[in-house]
Amino acid sequence: MRHNTYEGLHQNANELSAFLFTVDTFILSLKDSSIIQFKPDNAESFRNWLVSNKVRDCSKDDGIPPAIKINSEAQKPSSQSLLSISKLYNYVKQVYTKTRNN
Fold first, then answer.
1. How far apart are the first and last CA of the chain?
2. Per mean pLDDT, which range of 37-46, 77-86, 87-96 is the poorest?
3. Rounded distance between C-alpha atoms, residue 102 and residue 83, angstroms
4. pLDDT at 58 (0 to 100)
5. For residues 76 and 69, is the Cβ–Cβ distance under 8 A?
6. What is the pLDDT of residue 98?
7. In what order do the strands lie in the sheet with 16-22?
8. Could you tell me if residue 2 is left (phi over 0), alpha (psi between -120 and 50 degrees) or otherwise beta?
9. Which of 24, 52, 81, 90 could form a disulfide with 77 if both were Cys (CB 3.0 to 4.6 A apart)?
10. CA of 55: how far to CAs of 20, 69, 75, 94, 101, in Å?
11. For position 11, what pLDDT does the model report?
12. What is the pTM of this model?
């Protein structure tokens, strides 16, 4: 049985779109296009919870269908999708830079 909530996280699984893990922090992209970070007590357990709730792991799936990557004539991703991916990338870069400088 999947649980829709995770201790310490204010959002439910159905509000999450994608995640990345960096150093000790999960960067979470929400379906409303906002980005948050979360530091669980047990990173492996949290990652397993995300995967069991079918939250996309950006390190394995960038969200761009293979047909679009291969076929330049295919329909391009929506500007909303590109904006979310861009925001997530910039946020991860910012967190990574801060972590390296500390």
1. 40
2. 77-86
3. 29
4. 87
5. no
6. 75
7. 35-38, 25-30, 16-22, 56-57
8. beta
9. 81
10. 10, 22, 24, 22, 30
11. 95
12. 0.63
C-alpha to C-alpha distance for 98 and 16, rounded to whole angstroms:
24
Beta strand residue intervals within the chain, DSSP E: 16-22, 25-30, 35-38, 56-57
Phi, psi of 76 (to 5 degrees): -75, 155
Q: Are strands 56-57 and 16-22 parallel, antiparallel or unpaired?
A: parallel
Closest CA to 87 of 51, 58, 53: 58
pLDDT exceeds cutoff 60 at 84: yes
Q: Report strand pairing: 35-38 vs 56-57.
A: unpaired
The pLDDT of residue 2 is: 59
- Report residue 68 as tokens: 């679009």
The pLDDT tens digits for 34-53 are 999 999 999 999 999 999 99
Both structure tokens of 74: 């295919």
Q: What average pLDDT does the chain have?
A: 81
